[in-house]
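Fold tokens
===========
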Amino acid sequence: MGVNNGRGVVLVIIGFVVLAASSSSGNVVLEVHHKFAGRETTLKEVISHDANRHRRILSAADLPLGGDSRPTAAALYFTRLQIGSPPKDYHVQVDTGSDLLWVNCIECENCPKESDLGIPLRLYDPKDSSTAKKVGCDDDFCKSTFTGPSDECKAGMLCAYGVKYGDGSSTTGYFVNDNVQIAQVSGNRQTTPMSGNVILGCGAKQSGQLGSSDQALDGILGFGQSNTSMISQLSSAKKVRKMFSHCLDGRGGGGIFAIGEVVQPKIKTTPLIDDQTHYNIELKSIDVNGEDIKLPTSILDFIKKQAVVVDSGTTLAYFPDEVYNQLMEKIMAAQPGKKPHIVEKMFKCYQYSGNIDDGFPVVNLHFANSLSLKVLPHQYFFQVEDDEWCIGFQNSNLKEKTGKELTLLGDIVLSDKLVTYDMEKKVIGWTDYDCSSSIKVKDEESGNVYEVGAQDISSSHYRCNSRMVLGLLFFLVAACLIN
């Protein structure tokens, strides 16, 4: 894949710049869409998507704030937010690998004017919002984020940020506190509008690929662990539990994305590796239909330090060469009479007309605390044509700065499971689940438990071109938003 070659430096800077609310309680809901759904997707698009995203993962590994090599090509999911008073629509990427919530601003230089995703783009103007308040450099939010000398903060200065991504593109702007309107879960399968104030970035200048209309959106909604992320802000204000979950329907193309506590289904967890920028866990072993894959000592040593990256924004699953070769050998041994053909110089594909689950083995990944990830053939294969199936496992060619190989689990192996990221307990967990069905969430203020189903809310709150997106419910389980 060549992901490691020629990657740029990612810089994330919070600083100062000179430039001349309401609260609500309840569970909050948004609808999230998959950028590849409802349209034909080439294998080249999938590889391009993952390659761009991996540059972000590799480049941002040592930084306090996450970044992307090319955010417009490196996020699988996007959602609609309403920001300001009166509220206006903005479409932002949902990204577990970055931190900031930011949107393109009216001052923006080189911002895209249109998007090939078929959605309208809009520039945010704080002056058009009666609830917008620019964040000063002396604000607690800025002080806790900015690591530079405090004497640089002068009267009239705003809290500014700058991000340079791995592909050379960059964004700079300043923080604004404004009203965000979303939908509140008010009962079983019921929602009502609600609003609250959050601190977001106002992108004033873009360069490089951030100005392209290729899969362009209005900004990014980051779910990283930095104190600049929305989930960290809500947690610091003691308004929401610092945890989120997703359940992606691998067959039907729907699902749920939640912030807060999911009380049903129950899950088993494994510890997060400490002091990591991304969501990393320790892999203990792998087997294919009960036959163990040999993990070389060098890989085990690596895993103890860097672990396996869990990233729903990556499409496929990537393994070090020695592991990948053994996986392919055991998978292909299930069909000795069929020879796979190679597509796009890297995908091993089969002509297969039967039930794919009957013809190929189950792959099991075992993690610390006896947590296993069961991956069925229809989950690690993806269908290209009616009778053509390609394996979604790849040799990673991804190396951390120390030169050790990276294992990364993407969307393809996380589907048909409820996956929870709990930053309070520092664990990740999952369970097999029918993601087209409902889950139960806990309201933090009242203690009430509500049933929420993806179809219930997505059908009533947003209309979208069905060729371009799939309905994926995103909801926030919160007592109230930041004042």
Q: What stands out?
A: Residues 72 and 119 are 14 Å apart (CA to CA). The two ends are 46 Å apart (CA to CA). The chain has nine helices and 32 strands. The longest strand covers residues 170-187.
